[in-house]
TrEMBL record:
Residues 5-225 form the PPM-type phosphatase domain. The lineage of its organism: Bacteria, Bacillati, Actinomycetota, Actinomycetes, Pseudonocardiales. InterPro entries: PPM-type-like_dom_sf, PPM-type_phosphatase-like_dom. It comes from the Bacteria. This is PPM-type phosphatase domain-containing protein.
């Protein structure tokens, strides 16, 4: 069995009554599974749901795939009687794969970032938000940014809108974040390079350094791939 090298840091939003972001990681044999959930709202019920959903997704993904993990978490809140099931939230799930690769699945605006062997950070997921949809349609950035907080998909709506998944190559370090995290990729890369062997310190530095431009909770999970990184550089597959 592998040893997980994972660091986690989280902070409650400045005006939130409690933190409704959650994360989990599970090791099963030679696979590491990771999950981040951003609960919609700030009630105790939502916070409990986020923790349960993250734990469920990581447990299932470790034994199957990130897609199965997301679907398992979806079953905790699925409700066809309403268009907006509650509690709900956004989710991103990842598993380590042979050859230094990762698989990632998501619904909502939680995100995955990779640190590649050249030391550069790249976002690997596209958030399911109205703002992102407007950008893809050519809407000016200043207008799209105003609705970045409006989700077009999430855990409670996967049975209607599905989910997305991607395979990530050549990524010795993977970072999962909730949407409360707002830091440029170059700044992320600098901090990750400063702490190459300490994912916990790296996660704490990322949360501490990221500007708090909104009142949202934030969680950051930094994971090193269980295998020594390689220099393989083939394209991501969606």
């Amino acid at each position: 069995m592998i040893t997980a090298r994972v660091g986690v840091a989280t902070e409650k939003g400045p005006r939130r009554p409690l933190n409704a972001d959650a994360c989990a990681h599970v090791v099963h044999g030679d696979r590491l599974a990771l999950a981040v959930v951003d609960g919609t709202g700030s009630t105790p019920e939502v916070a409990d749901f986020a923790r349960t959903a993250a734990a469920t997704a990581a447990y299932v993904a470790a034994r199957r795939t990130p897609v199965h993990g997301v679907l398992a978490a979806h079953e905790l809140c699925a409700d066809l009687a309403t268009d907006y099931p509650s509690p709900s939230g956004a989710i991103v799930v990842a598993t380590s794969e042979p050859g230094g690769e990762w698989r990632v699945a998501w619904a909502g605006d939680c995100m995955a970032w990779k640190l590649d062997p050249t030391g550069q950070v790249r976002r690997c997921t596209d958030p399911h938000t109205l703002g992102e949809r407007l950008r893809s349609e050519g809407t000016p950035e200043d207008q799209a940014r105003k609705v970045d907080h409006q989700l077009t998909n999430g855990l409670g709506r996967i049975d209607r809108y599905g989910l997305d998944a991607v395979e990530i190559a050549a990524a010795p370090v993977l970072v999962l974040t909730s949407d409360g995290f707002d830091l440029a990729a170059d700044a992320m890369a600098t901090l990750l390079r400063q702490h190459p062997d300490d994912p916990q310190t790296a996660a704490e530095a990322l949360v501490k350094t990221a500007p708090r431009r909104n009142r949202d909770d934030v969680v950051v999970l930094v994971a090193h791939h269980p295998e020594p990184h390689t220099t393989t550089t083939h394209e991501e597959v969606t």
